[in-house]
Design brief:
- The protein is of the alpha+beta class and 350 residues long.
- The chain folds into 2 domains: 144 residues, 60s Ribosomal Protein L30, Chain: A, CATH 3.30.1330; 174 residues, PurM-like C-terminal domain (Phosphoribosyl-aminoimidazole Synthetase, Chain A, domain 2).
- The strands form 3 sheets. It has a 7-stranded mixed beta sheet with strand order 8-10-7-11-9-12-13, with helices on both faces.
- Strand 4, helix 3 and strand 5 form a beta-alpha-beta unit.
- 47% of the residues are buried.
- The structure holds adenosine-5'-diphosphate (ADP) and magnesium ion.
- The site of adenosine-5'-diphosphate has 13 residues, from helix 1, strand 4 and strand 5.
Length: 350
């Protein structure tokens, strides 16, 4: 069905029906001039917004609308996780071109709501407009965190150990596989023309593609790390390790040394190596969109931290100075922040 047959208010009504508020904290959700929400008085409010633009962040020839909805919620929840917070509410603002159907918007909210329900997050409002060129998605997430437990990018000191959750590089590898014509299970995308290049995925390829299209925010781990009281700083890895670790270094006027042999890779990225154009380390350093958490732990808290068995890997150390180094095969090379940068020229390097 065309969106013009339904109109703006008809579409909002459908979105409202599909996204009924569940939490008693949502006093007023979709349908009034503003949502009315109640938050715990002892906690701080966290607020974050991320935009996803067709042609910049996603390509509808390889992203289906369910995955896009999922991912647009996930990237915002990841920012709340990186502060050690609990995600509570979301708002979605859409710019919709005439090429998108009502069914596709329904798919978008199916994916969006699936992720939100997993974390008890209510969709409480948004905005809906026509876009003259390309689909525009802007999501705002609100969360909360105990005053004494909040983690920020600031706080890391020389000697602190650098940890990351999960494995790195999978999402960037998944994107490269999508660009090469591979498709994952159930994530077909709209397809452009014949696309005879679409290749049947093996399971490791499908899993890497899913990591790119449907990342999972590290909400539980972010909470555990914050509640442990052991971490000094935290950030989510959205632009690549070199870039996001660079933010921690800059914020704290410190440097870092990373050990290539300690970086956690998935079995999948090694298995898919023949199909990828770059080595896994390249995807880790400048690929981005892993949405894993990077955090620092001082040596004095290491024993306690390890006893909590929060699944994570130590990849390096914060050092004095303002440079980042990568230790690889006995060599120590300077590591420059080279992640995704919207306004960078192709040869961008610091
Ligand atoms: P207003 O003109 O007062 O901004 P709107 O007609 O834009 O009101 O929106 C009506 C209600 O629907 C509001 O509660 C708004 O937050 C909600 N809303 C609009 N678009 C969306 C959307 N894409 N997703 C979720 N809620 C939406
Ligand atoms: Mg409005």
């Amino acid at each position: 069905m065309k969106i013009s047959d339904l109109g703006e208010f008809g579409l909002i009504k459908k979105i409202k029906e599909q996204s009924k508020g569940r939490s008693p904290s949502t006093l007023i959700g979709i349908g009034d001039d503003a949502a009315a929400l109640s938050l715990s008085p002892s906690k701080k409010l966290l607020a974050t917004t991320d935009m996803l633009l067709e042609g910049v962040h996603f390509d509808l020839s390889y992203t289906d609308l369910y995955s896009l909805g999922w991912k647009s919620a996930a990237v915002n929840l990841s920012d709340i996780a990186a502060m050690g917070g609990i995600p509570r509410f979301c708002l979605t603002a859409l710019g919709i071109p005439s090429t998108i159907s009502v069914e596709q918007i329904k798919e978008f909210y199916k994916g969006f709501n699936a992720l939100c329900r997993k974390y008890n997050v209510d969709l409480v409002g948004g905005d809906t407009c026509r876009s003259e060129k390309g689909l525009v998605v802007s999501v705002t997430a609100l969360g909360e965190v105990e005053k004494s437990k909040m983690l920020t990018r600031a706080g890391a000191q020389p000697g602190d150990l650098i940890f990351v959750t999960g494995t790195l590089g999978d999402s960037a590898a998944g994107l490269e596989l999508l660009k090469a014509g591979y498709r994952g299970h159930g994530t077909g995308g709209r397809g452009k023309g014949s696309k005879s290049a679409i290749r049947n995925p093996q399971s490791e390829i499908a899993r890497l593609i899913t990591k790119h299209l449907q990342p999972v925010p590290r909400t539980e781990w972010g909470r555990k790390i914050a509640l442990s009281g052991c971490a000094t700083a935290m950030i989510d890895i959205s632009d690549g390790l070199s870039s996001d670790l660079g933010h921690i270094c800059e914020e704290n006027r410190v440097g870092a040394e990373i050990r290539a042999d300690q970086i956690p890779f998935s079995k999948d990225i090694h298995k898919a190596a023949d199909h990828l154009k770059a080595i896994p380390l390249h995807y880790v350093l400048s690929g981005g969109e892993d949405y894993e958490l990077l955090f620092t732990v001082p040596p004095s808290k290491l024993k306690k931290f390890l006893s909590l068995k929060i699944s994570s890997t130590q990849i390096g150390t914060i050092i004095a100075g303002n440079k980042m180094f990568l230790r690889d095969d006995g060599k120590r090379v300077v590591l420059k922040p080279k992640g995704f940068n919207h306004f960078a020229r192709a040869e961008y390097s610091l």
